[in-house]
Hints:
Blueprint lengths: L27 E2 L11 H15 L11 H11 L8 E4 L2 H12 L5 E5 L5 H8 L3 E5 L9 H11 L3 E5 L11 H10 L3 E5 L23 E6 L12 E4 L2 H8 L9 H12 L1 H4 L3 H17 L3 E2 L6 E5 L4 H10 L2 E2 L9 E4 L3 H17 L1
Parallel strand pairs: 1-11, 3-4, 3-5, 5-6, 6-7
Antiparallel strand pairs: 2-8, 7-8, 9-10, 10-12
Helix pairs in contact: 1-8, 2-8, 3-4, 5-6, 10-12
The structure holds pyridoxal-5'-phosphate.
Cofactor: pyridoxal 5'-phosphate
Pathway: Amino-acid biosynthesis; L-histidine biosynthesis; L-histidine from 5-phospho-alpha-D-ribose 1-diphosphate: step 7/9
Organism: Okibacterium fritillariae
Amino acid sequence: MTSLDDLPVRDDLRGKNPYGAPQLAVPVALNVNENTHPIPEGVATDIVASLAAAILGVNRYPDREFTELRTSLADYLGYDLSPENLWAANGSNEVLQHILQAFGGPGRSLLGYVPTYSMYSILASGTGTRWIGAERDERYELTPETAVAAIQREQPDIVFLCSPNNPTGTPLSLETIEAVYAASTGIVVVDEAYAEFSTTGEESALSLLPGRPRLLISRTMSKAFAFAGVRVGYLAADPAVIDALRLVRLPYHLSALTQAAAVAALRHSGEMLRMVDEIIGQRDRIVDGLRDLGYDPFRTGSNFVLFGGVDDPQATFRALLDRGVLIRDVGIPNSLRVSAGTTAETTAFLDAMAALNSNA
Ligand SMILES: *Cc1c(COP(=O)(O)O)cnc(C)c1O
C-alpha cells in the first residue's frame, strides 16, 4: 500500500496533520461548538420551498456574484453596510483561505495569538504562508500592549484576531483591535465566528470599519445561526478588499442551493437566532457548575467554555465519552473545552462531571 510519504507531496506539507476533530455518533456531542438546537420547523419549510425553486434552475451556473445573498447579509449586519462591502464562501474557513490566497502566500506571514483557532496555521500551510504564533497575557487575555509588541517585533503581512477566541472563549476589546490596526501596515482580520454569543457589552468590530480599509471582519452562519451543515461564512470590508478576493475564488464557488438556503434563512434571522439567549444561559450554567465542582473555567464570550484544573484531560475525555458525552481535548495542559448544548445535554455533561468527581 502507498503511504503519504511515498508521494511527491509538497515539501512544506510533509509531516503536517489535517484538521481532525473526531466525528463520533454519541448521544451528547459538545465538541465542535455547533448550535445543538435544530432550526425552527417553519423556517425549515420556507428554506425547502426556496431550494425547490432553485433546483429547477441548476442547469445554469449560479449567480457568480451572489448579489441577493450579499444584499441579505448587508441588511442582517446593519452598520450602514452595502452589498459591495460583503463577501461570502463555503464556510468562513473558505473566506479565510481566500484572504490568505490574496494577501498571503510564499514570502509572506500570518500572525495569530496562541492558543487560537487551529485552522489558522493549517490554512497558512496550505497557502504557503509563514505562520507566527505570538503570546497572550495571563489567562489568555490580550492587552493592546502585548498585541502591539508582537506586531512590532514580527512585522507580519496579515494578523488574525479571533474575537471571542477559540478555543479559550476569551472576549477581545475594541481597544486591542484598534491598537493592532494602528501598529500594522498589513491586513487585519477579526474572526467574529461567535459574535452573536458575546455578553461583554463590547460592540462588534464592524463599528471600526469606516476609514480602515485594511480591516476585515469575518462571520459565519455555522454557530449562532445553526447552519453548520450548509457551509456559509461571510466577510465585511472595504469594496477594494472584496475585489482582491474575486481574484482568487473559484468561479461560481457558492452553489445555487447554498445561496437559496442562506437567503431564505436570513429572511428569518430573528427566529434563527432565537436560541442564542438560551445557549448563553446554558454556557453560564456550565461556568457556574464547573466552578462548583472545583474546576477553573476561563472567561468566555462564546457558546463554549474552556476549563482548567483537569489532572488528566485524556482520562476525563475518555470517561465522559464512556458516558456518551463527547467534548474536546484541544491540547492545552490540564484543560478541556465543552460547547453549550440544550438544557438536557448540558445537564448530561454536568452530571457526568459530578459523577467523575465523586469517583475520584
Ligand atoms: C467554527 C469557527 C469558524 C467557522 O467555520 P465555518 O467554516 O464558517 O463553519 C470560524 N472561526 C472560528 C474561530 C471558529 O471557531
